[in-house]
C-alpha cells in the first residue's frame, strides 16, 4: 500500500464530503413543517415567527445559507441547536461516545460470532451445524431490529431479570442493545464467511497443502482463512459504518442516549443544525471506515496493489 494511494483517497474524500453536505442541506430543508413555527409555538403571532426565522437565518436565500453552512464547517462550527440553545458540537459529543460504544460492542459480537460460525459451516458443509447456522442466519437477517429488542427485553429483563431494560449506566445495560443491534450483522458476516471459505478451500493451493501432509487445522487456519477473510473484511467495514448510523431503533427501544435518539428528537423539532451535524458526522465516519478497509486489504493479500 503506497502513501500516494492513501493521499489520493484522502483528496477524493473532499468532493465526496462536499456532495454529502449539499445533499444533507437540501434534504433537511425540504422536510415538511416550518422550524420557526415549531419553535415559536402554535399560538405565536406572525411577528414572533418572523423574528425566530431571522434568528435562525432562514430568511436568507438558500444559496447564502449553504455558503454560511460550509464556512462554519471549515471553522469547526456546526451551529447552535435551535431546540436547546447549546452548540451542536457539544450536543453531539455528549451523545456520540454512547453510540460509538454500542456500535463497537455490536460489531465485536457480530465479528466473533459471524466469522467463527461461517468458518465452521464452510468447513463442515452440508452438516447439521451448517444447515442450522444458516437457518438462524436467515432468521437474523429477516427479523426487524425493534422486534428482537422487545423480545430480548421481555425475556431477559422482565421475566428473568438478568439485564436492565433501559438506560446506559453500567456494562449490563450494554448487553441487550449490543446483541440486538449486532444480530443482523452477525448473520450477514456468517453467510459471507461461509461462502468465502467454500470458494477458497476448493482452490488448487489448498489441495496442494493437503497433499503435502499438513493437518486440516493448519490448512484451514494458516492457508485458507487469510484469503477467505478479504471479502469478509469489506462486509465488516460496511457493517461498522451501518451500525454507527443505523442504531436509531435500538437506541429508542432501550432508551440508549446516543446520536440516533438525538437525531430523531431533532427531526421532530425541526432542529436543522443538529440534523445536519449528526448526518455529516456519520457520513464522514463511513467514508473513513471505507478507507481503513482498503488499507487492511494490502496486509491480508500482498498481491493487491494500488497504482
Explain what the structure shows.
There is one protein chain. The protein folds into two domains: 3-74, no CATH class; 92-300, MetI-like (MetI-like fold). It is built from 13 helices and no strands. It has helices spanning 3-29, 35-40, 46-56, 62-74, 88-123, 128-142, 145-159, 171-200, 204-211, 216-245, 248-253, 259-268, 272-300. α1 runs antiparallel to α13 (272-300). It is globular, with a radius of gyration of 24 Å. 33% of the residues are buried. The model has no long low-confidence stretch (mean pLDDT 79).
Keywords, separated by commas or semicolons:
single chain; MetI-like fold; mainly alpha; 307 residues; 2 domains
Topology record:
Blueprint: H1 3-29, H2 35-40, H3 46-56, H4 62-74, H5 88-123, H6 128-142, H7 145-159, H8 171-200, H9 204-211, H10 216-245, H11 248-253, H12 259-268, H13 272-300
Helix pairs in contact: 1-13, 5-6, 5-8, 5-10, 5-13, 6-8, 7-8, 8-10, 10-13, 12-13
How does the overall form come out from the CA principal axes?
A: globular
CATH class of the largest domain: Mainly Alpha
Estimate what percentage of residues fall within beta strands.
Answer: under 5%
pLDDT < 50 stretches: none
Characterize this entry briefly.
The chain has helices spanning 3-29, 35-40, 46-56, 62-74, 88-123, 128-142, 145-159, 171-200, 204-211, 216-245, 248-253, 259-268, 272-300.
